[in-house]
Design a protein that fits this description.
The chain is of the alpha/beta class and 276 residues long. Helix content is 43%, strand content 12%. The protein has one domain (2-275): 3-Layer(aba) Sandwich (Rossmann fold). The protein is built from twelve helices and seven strands. α1 packs across α11 (234-255). It is globular. Bound molecules: adenosine-5'-triphosphate and magnesium ion.
């Protein structure tokens, strides 16, 4: 699952690590791939990612096996992380001259032999080669949307990129999930934005939205997800509930894969229409 939105600070990393922890706490084996040079997902999971640590950069640029960079997350059984170091900042440029530059992550994942139920990829806030690598490797895209005024600006560009990757490089890719983040139900603006997003993307938006929560924003400074930092908080419960929706959808798709797939394809040809 590719967690992408080229808009910065909308909750991609927060969503990646907390959904991953929620799924792992329910018994799934989950790998988080940190594909952002900022390394925020690695930090939030308490994973060492100083410059010498073997990282996703080595996988992408030097074809190092993914198994050599994956580390277990200490607090959560079944949760693993492929960290990002600052080296990754150069990868956008270094990848340009490499063979199969768009599919290097896909190849690395295909060669990874450990059993996993989910892989969540945290993308940087751009639509460059790192995000393209994630989209080529992934089966579906999760877009976190922050409930504020500019929420839908740039979304059309993101959806067109998904369509381009689907058309040329990864025919199965689709936007499966939209999650409303930092939702503050007391403001009229937040509920208006939420309503607009739900109108455009009735199928994709999860029923659960993530509230604005101090506990969610505090957790990374302790190298923890909110699920271990404050398991009873509203933020933890909302991510658990969102993960439950995602798991149930996945189960439904396995039950009737043809139907689910056809539905997505038809739906999404027109998904970017009407969105700028
Ligand atoms: P970037 O584009 O830089 O990678 P991002 O999309 O990954 O950003 P996050 O880093 O997850 O966004 O979140 C941006 C900021 O908002 C962080 O400081 C995070 O702690 C905070 N934040 C995210 N979700 C919530 C929430 N539900 N409640 C309160 N704060 C939140
Ligand atoms: Mg981030």
């Amino acid at each position: 699952m590719v967690v992408a939105n080229q808009k910065g600070g909308v909750g991609k990393t927060t969503t990646t690590v907390n959904l991953a922890a929620s799924l792992a706490l329910h018994g799934a084996r989950v790998l988080v791939i940190d594909l952002d040079p900022q390394g925020n997902a690695s930090t939030a999971l308490g994973i060492d990612h100083h410059a010498e640590v073997p990282s996703i950069y080595d996988v992408l640029v030097d074809s190092r096996p993914l198994s050599e960079v994956v580390q277990p997350v200490l607090d959560v059984e079944g949760l693993f992380c492929a960290p990002a170091t600052i080296d990754l900042a150069g990868a956008e440029i270094e990848l340009v001259s490499l063979v199969a530059r768009e599919s290097r992550l896909q190849r690395a994942i295909q060669a990874y032999e450990q059993p996993l139920d989910y892989i969540l990829i945290d993308c940087p806030p751009s639509l460059g080669l790192l995000t393209v690598n994630a989209m080529v490797a992934g089966a579906e895209v999760l877009i976190p949307i922050q409930c504020e005024y500019y929420a839908l600006e740039g979304l059309g560009q993101l959806l067109r990129n998904v369509e381009l990757v689907r058309g040329h490089l990864n025919p199965g890719l689709h936007v499966s999930t939209i999650l409303l983040t930092m939702y503050d139900g007391r403001t009229r603006l937040a509920s208006q934005v939420a309503e607009e997003v739900r109108t455009h993307f009735a199928e994709e938006v999860l029923r659960t939205s993530i509230p604005r929560s101090v506990r969610i924003s505090e957790a990374p400074s302790y190298g923890q997800t909110v699920l271990t930092y404050d398991p009873g908080s509203s933020g933890a419960l909302s991510y658990l509930e969102a993960a439950r929706e995602i798991a149930l959808r996945g189960a439904a798709m396995h039950y009737d894969p043809q139907h689910a797939h056809a539905g997505h394809q038809n739906n999404q040809r027109s998904m970017s229409e009407g969105i700028q």
